[in-house]
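Section 5: illustrative case.
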C-alpha cells in the first residue's frame, strides 16, 4: 500500500497519528484473531463429533430399515426451534437453545407397539441433525470473521505500520537535511557578509 505524504510538519503529524492508532489497535486485533482461531478449531471439533454421532445413530438403526416402511412420518414434526445469539470475540453467532417436536397422538391398537421407540429415534436423529446444521452455520460465520481479522492483522502488521514508519522516517530525514542546509546557508551568508564588511572597512 502506497502511503501518500508531503515533506512537511503537518503531513508528519498526520502520519504519526495514524501510526499510533494502528500500533494501539494491533494487540487487540492479535487477541481477537487468536480467540477466533481457537473458537474455529473448537467448533470444527464439535461439528465433526455431531456428524460422527449422526452417522453412528443412523447405522445403529439400519436393522430397523424394514420396519420403517410401516411407520407414519406424519406422526412427528419439528414444531419450533428456539434460537438466541451470543458474542464470541466480537462476532455475533447463533445459539441453538431448544427444539420442540409436535407428536400427533396415535392408536396403539391400530399401530405397532414399536412406534413409540420410532418417534424417540426420529427425535434423536432430527435433534442431532439440526444441531449439526447450526454448528455448521456458526463455523462458517466464525471462519469468515477469522479470515477478515487475519487480513486486517496482516495489513496492519506487514503493510501499514512498516509503511507509516518508513514515511515518517523519510520526512524526518528530509526535514533534518533541510535544516542542515538552512544552517549551512546561513553560515555562508554570514561569512559573506563579514567578508564584505571587512572589504568595505579596508577600502575606507
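Designed sequence:
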Amino acid at each position: 500500500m502506497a502511503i501518500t505524504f508531503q515533506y512537511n510538519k503537518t503531513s508528519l503529524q498526520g502520519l504519526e497519528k495514524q501510526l499510533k492508532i494502528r500500533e494501539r489497535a494491533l494487540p487487540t486485533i492479535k487477541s481477537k484473531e487468536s480467540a477466533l482461531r481457537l473458537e474455529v478449531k473448537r467448533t470444527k471439533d464439535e461439528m465433526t463429533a455431531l456428524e460422527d454421532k449422526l452417522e453412528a445413530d443412523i447405522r445403529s438403526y439400519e436393522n430397523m430399515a424394514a420396519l420403517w416402511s410401516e411407520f407414519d412420518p406424519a406422526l412427528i414434526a419439528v414444531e419450533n426451534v428456539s434460537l438466541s445469539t451470543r458474542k464470541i470475540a466480537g462476532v455475533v453467532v447463533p445459539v441453538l437453545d431448544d427444539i420442540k417436536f409436535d407428536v400427533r397422538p396415535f392408536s396403539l391398537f391400530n399401530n405397532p407397539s414399536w412406534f413409540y421407540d420410532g418417534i424417540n429415534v426420529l427425535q434423536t436423529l432430527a435433534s442431532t441433525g439440526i444441531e449439526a446444521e447450526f454448528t455448521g452455520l456458526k463455523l462458517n460465520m466464525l471462519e469468515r470473521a477469522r479470515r477478515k481479522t487475519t487480513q486486517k492483522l496482516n495489513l496492519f502488521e506487514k503493510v501499514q505500520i512498516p509503511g507509516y514508519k518508513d514515511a515518517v522516517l523519510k520526512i524526518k530525514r528530509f526535514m533534518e537535511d533541510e535544516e542542515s542546509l538552512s544552517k549551512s546557508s546561513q553560515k555562508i551568508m554570514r561569512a559573506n557578509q563579514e567578508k564584505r564588511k571587512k572589504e568595505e572597512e579596508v577600502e575606507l
